[in-house]
Amino acid sequence: MNSTERRHEIVQLALADGRVRVVDLAERFSVSEVTIRADLKRLDARGILARTHGGAVANNRMIRELSLMEKSAEHISTKRRLAEAACKLITDGDSIILDSGSTTAEIARLLSGFERLMVMTNGLNVAVNVADCDNIQLMMTGGTLRRKSQSFFGRQAEDALLRFNFDKLFLGVDGLDFRVGITTHFESEASLNQRMCEVANQVIAVTDSSKFNRAGVHKICGLDELDVLVTDSGIPDAFADTLQNCGVRLVIVEA
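Above: the chain sequence. Below: its structure as tokens.
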């Protein structure tokens, strides 16, 4: 386990238990307490954990990473309305990227009504939802499968994206925070999402309002890098004002 993987695990432990202790972490990861203190110092500097005597506690803005199954069960009716609204932004003949995730999987379920689309995805569940659609030219990024999120990541996936130019990216969101921006929990997934943003003419984030004022561990992009945000009516007024001041178009459905 490298230092990035170890810090990711430390954050997940802190989120699960509320706090972590240096001595326990050193034993768990078979490293010195000096190394663990350096990890906690780095995470504290990034606002992810708050250091305490002998350990650290979770920052209350941080969110625990859910499995895909857990995500799929949350706010399902809202996610379906978000997917319907997102599909209204798609035009026949578009080339689109669907990020992995439960909301983008709902978008994928609705694509059979279009006459012709090109769809690239890193989500195994997303691909399954369009695999039988004759109207869709389906491509996958390839890479290494991360089973918890049913998503592919890695250099192979990033290189696959860089050979294309897409009309639109539909980006899933783990957290959306004033200070940090759009975030996710897994560093390699954040890196792949950044490449997605680079090769898409329009970046469209799709998320229910439970993700506002929350942050994952790794930043994907700033709020001002979004073109469109599809969300529900639970969006805080302060966020709506900030996003509109950044030039982001808001598409809001009823919660």
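Residues 68-253 form a domain with the Rossmann fold fold (CATH 3.40.50.1360).
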